[in-house]
Amino acid sequence: MRGTVSASLAVLLFTASLSGCTAVTDAISGNDSADVPVWEVGDWWLYTFSTPEYTDDTARLVVASVSEESGTANMLAISSLTEARRHAVLNHNPFLGRITHEDLAAFENGVAQPVMEFPLEKDNSWEFTLFSIEWQASVIDLSSDYVTIRADSDDGGRIDYVYDRSAGFFSSFIWKDSAEIEQMRMMLADNGEGHTGDVYFVRGGDLYSDTWEDTGPDIEIRDTFFVSGHPNDGEWDEMIYFLDAECGTGSSSITLTLRDHFSVSALERVWGPGASEYGTLGTIPYPSEEYTLTATFTGDTYLRIRIAGGITSSWTL
User: Fold this and answer.
1) What does pTM read for this prediction?
2) Nearest one of 132, 179, 128 to 150, comparing CA atoms
3) Which DSSP string corresponds to 65-96?
4) Which of 316, 299, 292 is closest to 208 using CA atoms?
5) Beta partners for 230?
6) Is 295 exposed, middle or buried (0-12, 13-18, 19+ CB in 10 A)?
7) Which residues pair with 162 in a beta bridge?
8) Considering only CA atoms, which of 145, 149, 103, 111 is closest in space to residue 130?
9) Among 2.60.120.380, 3.40.50.300, 2.60.40.3500, 3.30.70.20, what is the CATH number of 203-312?
């Protein structure tokens, strides 16, 4: 009887030791690759965005839907309508809108671009297009928490980005051009699940963009642009504008007027000596076919304006 108990105990201990070895092996194997995460509606990531041209901003990206593209893609939206509009007109965040289930690929010009190619494994390499640039990417390091990836372009630019296993998305994404100037820095501040409330995605389309800087005699600029609908989704809901303006001292001044083809003023602004404003965001509710922009400058002045069409979608979570 005692021999039977001893034999049973030996078998039990041997089985337990095998089980422990298997668990360790699985953990080690898990460090050798990372599988694509499965997002759920309400998952969210809080990012800060930095670019050389615009002031930094923070946006909470939220999974609004997991059934886009006939059930093959997620919809990544923003928790603030103002921030959704800002990102639509500045167009500096490629990771909004449809994101595929298969590789968390972002869409550019209607084509899914595999910024990551799962499963992520050491020395894996692939190609994608982003910011209208072709990139060659490879995994350069894996750990239990992070996967480090580098992408290079033929013109000398590079993107360094890190996939966070626990967050299920990027912990950082940094794009530098060939002169080592950061064109975009996207950093994860927080993440979670179960977001509730309204979330928004504004499908944007560039309509007009220009910058003027004048330190000479008085000048007047008159420009006309035509507003047509989105190539796939029809008429815009609104136009979104973003502007920076600054006047020097003395007699410096700027006047800005935007009129539609009925000569109705859609936007009017005046800045006097010493006046300035940066990052102003606004909307024009009823786009028409043709607009005329007139700007006059006196003295030491600076004005930058971007205008985009916007189509807004929203979800209540």
Assistant:
1) 0.85
2) 128
3) EEEHHHHTEEEEEES-HHHHHHHHHH---SSS
4) 292
5) 234
6) buried
7) 148, 172
8) 111
9) 2.60.120.380
48-70 CB burial, b ≥16 within 10 A, e <16 = ebbbeebeebebbbbbbbbebee
Token couple for 295? 């700007």
Burial tier of 111 (Cβ tally within 10 Å: 0-12, 13-18, 19+): exposed
**Residue showing tokens 């000479």:** 216
3-state secondary structure of 114: coil
pLDDT tens per residue, the chain (317 residues)? Answer: 434 434 443 433 333 333 333 332 222 335 789 999 999 999 999 999 999 988 889 999 999 999 999 999 999 999 999 999 999 999 889 999 999 999 999 999 889 999 999 999 999 999 999 999 999 999 999 999 999 999 999 999 999 999 999 999 999 999 999 999 999 999 999 999 999 999 999 999 999 999 999 867 789 999 999 998 777 777 899 999 999 999 999 899 999 999 988 888 899 999 999 999 999 999 998 777 899 999 999 999 999 999 999 999 999 99
| Range(s) of the chain covered by CATH 2.60.120.380 | 203-312
Residues 6+ apart with CB under 8 A from 139: 120, 121, 122, 123, 124, 125, 147, 148, 149
| DSSP letters spanning 267-294 | EEEEE-TT-EEEEEEEEESS--SEEEEE
**Side chain identity, residue 259:** R
Residue 151's nearest CA partner among 134, 164, 168 is: 134
Instruction: Please name every residue paired with 184 in a beta bridge, in sequence order, or none if there are none.
Output: 175
